[in-house]
Write a structure and sequence with these properties.
The complex is a heterodimer of chains A (about 150) and B (about 190). By secondary structure, chain A is mainly α. Chain A is built from 7 helices and no strands. Helices cover about 70% and strands about 0% of the residues of chain A. Chain B is of the alpha/beta class. Classes of the chains: A mainly alpha (about 150), B alpha/beta (about 190).
């Protein structure tokens, strides 16, 4: 599958990426993260070998940008997020603020698996690791979250 | 579904172009000959299309110039302005750098000759073939005109048959007639291209 013109890729995923960032960071900070996410995507776009996992790829970039943002300042908790922007996935909404505490790879795997329902194979590709490594990262992330919740 | 605010979308597009991360910037402009897709690279104007459907065009642009094709309206402002002046009868020559990558050999030689045909004048397919040193290539010249990547600026509307008939035009004969009328100072008929 060839890499499509960037315009098509961007048009297809910009809203979903923005929604993802709003959930992770809140509306205000999501706007800065949005631009940074897509600029990073543009920097890496030429080097892509195929267009099969573009959605997972850009969500991973967005998650990493959000993590970098999070390092600058603690993110708002879910309760502080405007209800308007709350996801329609309540189970994930209950853990997303805790996901901030996870190591980067685990967090990305948890977010991509539970918030976006991507397969482990897609997540592995997006994170530059194997399917099995993605599964392990997500499951150890969830174990860690369960410990924090208990 | 959360929708990206327009201002944020515009900001990203502009930032991307300013950071030189875009291979091709494009926009669709409204003109008297209908909406035109205008595209530029860092080298210059690379495409004017009468088919303003970006999806089809962006595929082609990506193949020729690179996959980072992005709608970035401000980047084509200069082209848009010169076209406006042309359609208002205030501009006879375009002052725009062109990017003709992908057009080599005979095709490029013909397009270079075409660029020299003055405003308000016409030439023939055969004359261009003769000037390029291949008098028997009138038909090939027709094909090159039909695939002209930058119509209007590279004035293929000024090329007609030896008998004086308009013959053909990538954007349709109505548009060819309108452009020739404009350059001859004749009032153009109102044609709805939308």
């Amino acid at each position: 599958m060839t890499v499509p013109p960037f315009e098509r890729f961007y048009s297809e995923h910009r809203d979903a990426v923005f929604g993802h960032l709003v959930r992770l960071l809140g509306r205000q900070r999501a706007e800065d993260a949005f631009q940074e996410t897509w600029l990073r995507a543009l920097r890496g776009y030429e080097a892509l070998q195929h267009g099969r996992y573009l959605r997972a790829w850009v969500f991973t970039i967005a998650t990493r940008v959000a993590i970098d943002e999070g390092r600058k300042r603690r993110p708002e908790t879910v309760a502080e997020l405007d209800a308007e922007w709350a996801d329609d996935r309540p189970e994930y909404a209950q853990i997303e603020h805790l996901a901030d505490e996870l190591p980067e790879k685990e967090r990305a795997a948890v977010v991509l698996r539970y918030a976006y329902d991507l397969s482990y194979s897609d997540i592995g590709t997006a994170l530059g690791s194997s399917e099995e490594a993605a599964r392990q990262a997500a499951s150890s992330g969830v174990r860690r979250l369960r410990r924090e919740l208990s | 579904m959360t929708v990206v605010p327009n201002a944020l979308d515009r900001r990203f597009r502009q930032a991307a172009a300013e950071a030189c991360l875009v291979d091709v910037s494009f926009d669709v402009a409204d003109t008297p000959v209908g909406p035109l897709l205008l595209a530029v690279t860092e080298r210059g104007l690379c495409r004017i299309s009468f088919d303003p459907e970006p999806d089809r065009e962006t595929e082609q642009l990506a193949r020729l110039f690179g996959v980072r094709v992005l709608k970035a309206p401000r980047e084509v402002d200069r082209v848009r302005r010169e076209l406006e002046e042309y359609f208002e009868g205030r501009r006879r020559e375009f002052d725009l750098p062109l990017d003709l990558r992908g057009r080599e050999g005979f095709s490029r030689a013909i397009l270079d000759r075409l660029a020299q045909v003055p405003y308000g004048e016409v030439t023939t397919y055969k004359s261009l073939a003769v000037e390029a040193g291949n008098p028997r290539a009138a038909r090939a010249v027709g094909t090159i005109m039909n695939r002209n990547p930058i119509p209007i600026v590279l004035p293929c509307h000024r090329v007609i048959g030896s008998s004086g008939s308009l013959v053909g035009y990538g954007g349709g004969l109505e548009r060819k007639r309108l452009l020739l009328d404009l350059e001859a100072g004749r009032p153009a008929l109102d044609v709805d291209y939308s």
